[in-house]
From TrEMBL:
Pfam families per UniProt: ATP-synt_B (PF00430)
Chain ranges passing through the membrane: 12-30
Assembly notes: F-type ATPases have 2 components, F(1) - the catalytic core - and F(0) - the membrane proton channel. F(1) has five subunits: alpha(3), beta(3), gamma(1), delta(1), epsilon(1). F(0) has three main subunits: a(1), b(2) and c(10-14). The alpha and beta chains form an alternating ring which encloses part of the gamma chain. F(1) is attached to F(0) by a central stalk formed by the gamma and epsilon chains, while a peripheral stalk is formed by the delta and b chains.
Name of the protein this chain belongs to: ATP synthase subunit b
GO molecular function, one term: proton-transporting ATP synthase activity, rotational mechanism
GO CC terms: endomembrane system; plasma membrane; proton-transporting ATP synthase complex
UniProt keyword terms in alphabetical order: ATP synthesis, Cell membrane, CF(0), Coiled coil, Hydrogen ion transport, Ion transport, Membrane, Transmembrane, Transmembrane helix, Transport
Function of the molecule: Component of the F(0) channel, it forms part of the peripheral stalk, linking F(1) to F(0). The b'-subunit is a diverged and duplicated form of b found in plants and photosynthetic bacteria.
Subcellular location, principal: membrane
Oxidoreductase listed as a keyword: no
Length: 162
């Protein structure tokens, strides 16, 4: 065992023992540092996952809002079209009623003018008949002659009316 008697061997053994004993706290510190870094990375990954989930939630919310806005816009457009159609129909009905009312008024005016013309013609006929009778009475004609003058006046009346 000459190897144990050599001082260099004991220095080497002491150095190895020292390194083993000194390496333990260094390795513990190194492990602790690596564990802390690993925990920090896990924390950052969890935060990133939380942010990703929040971003997905916001995206889904904005997409839902966009779909709702499009649906609302379509409803507004459909309502506006139906209102325009309703107003168009009401306007057409109002115009048609006004035209019918004016047509009825015109027909009433025409009927009134016709009845007034008929009344004037009747008045003229009566006046002519009265004049014929006055002539017959004034001339002192006999009955047959008076009848023929009246008949002639009536015939003239028909001719004058048409």
């Amino acid at each position: 065992m000459e190897i144990f008697q050599d001082p260099e061997t004991w220095v080497a053994i002491a150095t190895v023992i020292f390194l083993v004993l000194a390496a333990r706290p260094v390795l513990r510190a190194l492990n602790k540092m690596l564990d802390d870094r690993s925990a920090k990375i896990r924390s950052e990954l969890a935060e990133a996952e939380r942010l990703r989930a929040e971003a997905e939630k916001l995206l889904a919310d904005y997409q839902r809002r966009q779909r709702q806005a499009l649906k609302d816009a379509e409803e507004i457009l459909a309502h506006a079209k139906s209102e325009a159609e309703r107003i168009r129909k009401e306007s057409a009905a109002t115009i048609e009623a006004a035209l019918k009312r004016r047509e009825r008024q015109a027909m009433e005016k025409i009927a009134q003018a016709e009845s007034q013309a008929v009344a004037e013609v009747r008045n003229q006929a009566v006046n002519l008949a009265v004049q014929g009778a006055q002539k017959a009475l004034a001339s002192g004609l006999d009955q047959s002659r008076a009848s023929s003058l009246i008949d002639q006046s009536v015939a003239d009346l028909e001719r004058r009316l048409h």
